[in-house]
């Protein structure tokens, strides 16, 4: 996918702060330090639009990024970070659950998992929760460049087994450093965006305002 426009729009906490232009939304969920910001920058072909940090848990809102005036990528707070207080974790949980259960433009969730490690308890809970509520999910395994290519298949099999992954869910190997999986992931996003449309309906880019 050729990126002609990519911008950070808003950090939202409450539903009244969400964008109102009804563009399709693709959310990204995963543990802290799993590489979500790097993945977003890679997808949008921008070096630092989504801020990466050596301090996991920094994202505390739903961060909206608009791409080509056609779709929003919505970055969730990373879960599983021990130094975040219990009160903060509970608040994030309510915020995310409210979004997932009520947000009509949501088309799918990208569940981001580090290819090097087995899925965490929180990864499994998130996956099971998404499946229970019938929210479309695409599994994306990041940091493929950190392990030998010869071990990719072994690690993918392990993650699928640990998650109890539905074979119908897209499973994409990704490396932000190598650009591996970028085209495949954009194609999966495109299919999710178009799912449920009426025959002949297509996504139209929003016309930019002259300012």
Quick tags:
30% helix; Rossmann fold; single chain; 211 residues; alpha/beta; disordered C terminus; seven-stranded mixed β-sheet
CATH C-level label: Alpha Beta
Net shape: globular
Strand order of the largest sheet: 1-3-4-2-5-6-7
Could you tell me the strand content as a percent range?
15-25%
- Which CATH architecture is right? 3-Layer(aba) Sandwich
Account of the protein in words:
With 211 residues, the chain is of the alpha/beta class. It has a single domain, classed as Rossmann fold, CATH 3.40.50. It has 5 helices and 7 strands; from the N terminus they run E-E-H-E-E-H-E-H-E-H-E-H. The longest helix has 17 residues, at 86-102.
What is the element layout, followed by pairings?
Elements: E1 6-12, E2 25-30, H1 36-44, E3 62-67, E4 71-75, H2 86-102, E5 106-114, H3 121-132, E6 137-142, H4 152-163, E7 171-173, H5 182-194
Parallel strand pairs: 2-4, 2-5, 5-6, 6-7
Antiparallel strand pairs: 1-3, 3-4
Quick take:
It is built from five helices and seven strands; from the N terminus they run ββαββαβαβαβα.
């Amino acid at each position: 996918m050729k990126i002609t426009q990519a911008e950070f729009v808003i950090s939202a906490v409450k539903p009244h702060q969400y964008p109102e232009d009804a563009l399709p939304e693709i959310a990204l969920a995963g543990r802290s330090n799993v590489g979500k910001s790097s993945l977003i920058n890679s997808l949008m072909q921008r070096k630092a639009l989504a801020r990466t940090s050596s301090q996991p848990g920094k994202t505390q809102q739903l961060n909206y990024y608009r791409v080509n005036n056609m779709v929003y990528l919505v970055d969730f707070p990373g879960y599983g970070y021990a130094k975040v207080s219990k009160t903060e974790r509970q608040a994030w949980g309510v915020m995310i659950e409210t979004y997932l259960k009520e947000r009509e433009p949501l088309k799918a969730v990208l569940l981001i998992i580090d290819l090097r490690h087995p899925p965490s308890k929180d990864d499994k809970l998130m996956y099971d929760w998404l499946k229970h509520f019938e929210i479309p999910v695409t599994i994306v395994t990041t940091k493929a460049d950190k392990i030998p290519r010869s071990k990719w298949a072994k690690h993918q099999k392990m993650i699928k087994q640990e998650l109890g992954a539905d074979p119908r869910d897209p499973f994409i190997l990704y490396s932000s450093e190598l650009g591996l999986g970028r085209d495949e992931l954009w194609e999966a996003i495109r299919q999710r965006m178009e799912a449920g449309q009426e025959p002949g309906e297509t996504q139209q880019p929003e016309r930019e305002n002259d300012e």
